[in-house]
Specification:
Layout: E1 2-9, H1 17-31, E2 38-40, H2 54-57, E3 59-60, H3 63-76, E4 79-81, E5 85-89, E6 92-100, E7 106-111, H4 121-124, E8 134-136, E9 139-143, H5 152-159, E10 165-170, H6 177-191, E11 194-199, E12 201-203, E13 208-210, E14 214-216, E15 222-225, E16 231-238, H7 240-248, H8 251-254
Parallel strand pairs: 1-2, 2-4, 3-5, 9-10, 10-11
Antiparallel strand pairs: 1-16, 4-6, 5-6, 6-7, 8-9, 11-14, 12-13, 14-15
Helix pairs in contact: 1-3
This protein binds ligand LYUYDEPV.
């Protein structure tokens, strides 16, 4: 099975959700010119890291952002892994990913589990506790958000349920670009899955972001990589290579959970 993806590598207007929602709408329309089966957005694309103002600007129960993703998915008949957005709930504000299918149904929801202290997330956000598993276009998938990629044990837990694609929306700063690339490649190789990762570009008051969104195959080969500017990155995933890698080197059968 082959599937076409589009990754929307974009700049984000700091603390301006309405501006960002309009931009996402335009970018999705632009991405559709190449007729992808699914689209990935970056982390916190509605507010950026304007965390101090989250009380004013976070989306109540993710309603506005979910409504937009649903409408765009239906209009363009495309599955959208909606990066992540600010999501204010009674128990706290979360950095939340929503995935919707072509009909606009919500198929996946994930709240970032590991909060990144270097960007003050733990001061303003609550951490999620639930893993992420969903089916997109008949493919079992999982997703984590940005800093989560430093925790292979969390990702492995989800992959053990059969996920073939790992989605990673991010706002990853430029000074650690080499970590971004190496960590993503390692997650693809050790889990013998596709990694589809979307990083933002541009600057906010505290950081410059690295771009370099990527699609990596289950052998660790980078099949598409963006630069450091706004770009819609397109790639085709051949899902048969997941089974191929898992059959040739049966890492999942050879694990020794009795030892660790
Ligand atoms: N937004 C994030 O989670 C950034 C993570 C990061 O930069 C890292 O080095 O890890």
């Amino acid at each position: 099975m082959k599937k076409k993806c589009a990754i929307i590598q974009m700049d984000i207007a700091f603390g301006q959700p309405e501006t960002n929602r309009k931009k996402v709408e335009e970018k999705v329309a632009q991405a559709m010119k190449r007729q992808p089966d699914f689209i990935l957005l970056p982390e916190l694309w509605d507010t950026g890291y304007d965390l101090k103002r989250l009380d004013d600007i976070a989306d109540d129960h993710g309603q506005k952002n979910r409504a937009l993703l649903t409408r765009l998915a239906r209009k363009h008949q495309v599955a959208i892994i909606g990066g992540s957005v600010s999501n204010r709930e009674a128990a706290g504000t979360y950095n939340t990913l929503y995935a919707v299918d072509k009909q606009g149904n919500l198929t996946g929801e994930y709240r970032k589990a590991h909060l990144f202290r270097l960007m003050n997330e733990e001061k303003y956000l609550s951490a999620g506790k639930e893993p992420c598993r969903f089916v997109m276009e008949h493919i079992p998938c999982t997703a984590v958000i940005c800093y989560d990629i430093r925790f292979p044990e969390w990702i492995r837990k989800n992959i053990l349920h059969g996920a073939q694609i790992l989605f990673v929306p991010a706002e990853w700063p430029s000074p650690r670009l080499s970590h971004w690339r190496h960590l993503l490649i390692s997650r693809a190789i050790e889990n013998q899955c596709y990694v589809v990762a979307c990083n933002r570009v541009g600057q906010d008051p505290d950081n410059t972001f690295a771009g370099h969104s990527m699609v990596i195959d289950p052998w660790g080969a980078i099949i598409a990589e963006a630069g450091e500017k706004e770009e819609i990155l397109h790639a085709e995933l051949d899902l048969s290579s997941v089974q191929e890698a898992r059959t040739l080197i049966p890492v999942f059968d050879d694990r020794r959970p009795d030892l660790y």
